[in-house]
Write a structure and sequence with these properties.
Elements: H1 7-28, H2 37-50, E1 54-55, E2 68-71, E3 74-76, E4 91-100, E5 103-112, H3 118-135, H4 144-155, E6 161-162, E7 168-170, E8 177-181, E9 198-201, E10 204-206, E11 212-214, E12 222-224, E13 230-232, E14 235-239, E15 244-246
Antiparallel strand pairs: 1-4, 2-4, 3-12, 4-5, 6-10, 7-8, 9-14, 10-13, 11-12, 14-15
């Protein structure tokens, strides 16, 4: 069931989204060679608490940390660890979600550790643009499937694999709500968008196959099936009366 937010709930979503954007910016500013993903996690947890919020991933269905840190061929749900020390040339997605005044703000983006390869640079640029291509389809009476159609039309001719086993999602008081938001063509989510709907657009894009492996060891980490690099960007979006509002984008 899709929950249409009223004006009070939308303001709560704006507040949570702004805090999530600030958290992602401040955590990402600490990305550099020699820093462990656990250090980033601990900073994010401290920042979240200081701002009167809760880290939504922590203990969510057993997830053990406060953020997700996904390096190179890790698609998503990477678990921060003292053993994962960033090195020159790595690329990494940091995914943060806060609960602030009962509502969720969810956002992620890629970070480069020093200088990275031209292939990684292009993957990151194309993935970010694909997110915006999808977001620009958001307006009343368009279908959720339009998001994936647009992203697929942009990425597939470039030879990328768009992950199909994981999608965007509705969000609000709950971390994950209806509707799912696939990022590939010919998906079956034909729900029409309505003002007051809030959901994430978060394409996961691989340089190789779209297929992924789910870790049997930790139950969370998702990697590319062929070992290729992966990238992801994510914003939480509100459907407005005449288009969209990005709730997790800093003004500047």
């Amino acid at each position: 069931m899709i929950h249409i937010k009223n004006s009070k709930e939308i303001q709560r979503m704006r507040d949570a989204g702004r805090l999530a954007a600030e958290l992602l910016q401040e955590t990402g500013a600490r990305v550099k060679p020699g820093v462990s993903t656990l250090e980033l996690n601990d900073f994010a947890e401290s920042f979240t608490r200081k701002h009167g919020a809760v880290s939504a991933p922590l203990n969510y269905k057993g997830f053990p940390k406060s953020i997700c840190t996904s390096i190179n061929n890790v698609v998503c749900h990477g678990i921060p660890s003292s053993a994962d020390v960033l090195k020159e040339g790595d690329i990494m997605n940091i995914d943060v979600t806060v609960i602030y005044h009962e509502y969720h703000g969810d956002t992620s983006r890629m970070f480069k550790v020093g200088s990275v390869s031209p292939e990684a640079e292009q993957l990151i640029a194309d993935t970010e643009e694909s997110m915006w291509v999808g977001i620009r389809t958001v307006k009343p009476n368009n279908r959720i499937s339009d998001v994936g159609e647009a992203i697929d039309a942009f990425l597939t001719p470039k030879g990328y694999g768009i992950v199909r086993d994981l999608t965007g999602h509705g969000i609000g008081k709950n971390f994950h709500e209806d509707p799912p938001v696939p990022h590939y063509r010919q998906n079956q989510v034909r729900t029409r968008m309505q003002p007051g709907m809030t959901f994430t657009v978060e394409p996961m894009v691989n340089r190789g196959t779209w297929k992924v492996n789910f870790s049997k060891e930790d139950g969370w980490t998702v990697t590319t099936a062929d070992g290729s690099l992966s990238a992801q960007f994510e914003h939480t979006v509100l459907v407005t009366d005449d288009g969209f509002e990005v709730l997790t984008r800093l003004e500047n």
